[in-house]
């Protein structure tokens, strides 16, 4: 992705581990997040809340 500050490389590798939802659902959530970011002209997304991390990635954080 090209931004006003330079180029950002996007991960394109395979998923690691087993998700608690289908890969199709994972892609849908990721696409929705990217669309929301683009609508706000955001180049980065950082989440600190376990609920949002789990929703987007399926990663169950120790703090959850």
TrEMBL record:
Xref: InterPro entries: Creatin/AminoP/Spt16_N, Creatinase_N
Pfam families, per database record: Creatinase_N
Domain called Creatinase N-terminal: residue spans: 29-59
Protein's name in the database: Creatinase N-terminal domain-containing protein
Organism phylogeny: Bacteria, Bacillati, Candidatus Sysuimicrobiota, Candidatus Sysuimicrobiia, Candidatus Sysuimicrobiales
């Amino acid at each position: 992705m090209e931004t006003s500050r330079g180029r950002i490389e996007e991960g394109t590798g395979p998923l690691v581990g087993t998700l608690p939802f289908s890969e199709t659902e994972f892609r849908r959530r990721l696409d929705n997040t990217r669309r929301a970011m683009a609508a706000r002209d955001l180049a980065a997304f950082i989440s600190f809340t376990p609920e949002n991390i789990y929703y987007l990635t399926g990663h169950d954080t120790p703090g959850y």
